[in-house]
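Sample entry (406 residues):
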Amino acid sequence: MRPLHVLLLNQYFPPDTAATAGCAALIANVLAERHRVTVLAGRPSYDPVNHHSRYIFKEELDGNLAIGRVGSTAFPRRRMKGRLSNYFSYLALAGPRAVSINADLVLAMTDPPIEGIFGAAVAKFLGRRFVYNIRDLYPDVALAANIVRPGLWTAAWEDSHRRALRQAARVIVLGEDMRERIAAKGIDPARVTVIRDAVPFPEIIPRPDENIVRDIRGAFRFVLVHAGNLGFSGSWLTLIRATQMLEAENVGLVFVGEGAMKKQVQQFAQNCGNVRFLPFRPASDLSAVMAAGDLHVVTIRRGLEGMVVPSKMYNILAHGRPILSVASKDADVSRLACQYGFGFVVDPDDPIEIAQVVRSVLNAPDRLRSMSHQARKLAKIFERSRELAKFVDVIEEVGNQHRFRE
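Predicted structure, serialized as tokens:
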């Protein structure tokens, strides 16, 4: 099989720090081991570790990988106007460049949120096959989280998105719940593949820094940790109310991270003596953050299951920590927790159930150890290299189907 030329479309790419930037880099690099890959990204704007001066277009070459960047605006993401400017300037500048690239296959992700529609249009113009890698399901999640209001333009967005889904030779999603969401839009489930955002499996878990562990745990007897983004998808009020009920038992809830909802969550917790908010820790402290929690919280608001699939679960599993899934039983994390026994599933609208579950394990270390063991077993099954190999298989299958038809 001769190498393919894959055009990967995503606005964010390192030095952007967005989750999709890291995913795009992983995918681009593993594909470039056997194929030629051209990434078309924008000027770094997602809290980049370094900023780029203005330009129209620039390209970096590294073996089989070419990273092209159009000179989109790079406003901070704090204000929606700046974010929209970054989105639309990227699309306007990327369009002419994309249709000039003689790729065998177009692979689009979901930054900006209409990237899949854009990618489908590019693939159609080029007469090439299209693969759509959905990270968050738009416009569904934007509507469900009240980021946008329903109207004519969101109906047009959904209609265009469904056409892109129908055009895709393969749709790659992050979990079974998302796969079902796509199938419910009339897409053949056989064309929808689940490939997970897994992490490398550490045969030996790094020894945590005990000072950092103590700093995170404070003086609490038992600690729930939520490490990651405090965004629109979490069932935050339910979690805070449950923690209030556990104050007498000296159970604490510690948030480690930032996010769009952090200020609102802090307001929810302003009268809670057993809730703490800490900033993000660097990656070098990950083992300490994981060790600090007796239970690690993964939360998805009811109605958002299948629209977002939290990737934070995989680091928790790899470090052998039990999970408290504050999400409906239909959410992918809840299904896996029930199937493999690595954690508890609680109703995202029922703080009493959360409190009862936590109380049930306050003096049950053997039960938590059993869950930790199950977590490690599943982490090995979902090891990153295995999931990336599945991604390569999908791209090669679709790309060679196109060549055969030619």
